[in-house]
Amino acid sequence: MQRPDAAFRFLGLAARAGTLVPGTAQVRQAVRAGRVRFAVVAADASANSREKLLPLLAARRVRFAVAFDREALGRAVGRAPLSAVGLTDERLAERVAELLSETEGGAEGERVEGGGQAE
After folding, report:
1. What would the pLDDT profile of 43-65 be if each residue is shown by its tens digit?
2. How many domains does the chain fold into?
3. pTM summary value
4. DSSP assignment of the chain, as one string?
5. Domain span including residue 97
């Protein structure tokens, strides 16, 4: 499937550009600081990680996707397995969100939720 591969490429680009926050704790900290524009949470992240991160993302109105597994997410950004990553660049975040929402009906576990700006 081409869309997940494209999303992986954009996540790798964000990592190389320094606009990616790796790991649950770092993503939570960056969300609180208002830096994260979009987050990707691994579908196989632990219940503890999801319980700490998903309510915070929803409360701060940060869009997120539950997609991929920890191994694939880490590999996409050149790291060990990761439960979550956050994107701080608006344009890259928007593109990854778009790619993941296009695959929503395709791969199991992929969905884009929440966020956007308050109206």
Report:
1. 999 999 999 999 999 999 999 99
2. 1
3. 0.84
4. -HHHHHHHHHHHHHHHHT-EEESHHHHHHHHHTT--SEEEE-TT--HHHHHHHHHHHHHTT-EEEE-S-HHHHHHHTTSS--SEEEE--HHHHHHHHHHHHHTTTTSTT-EEES-----
5. 2-107
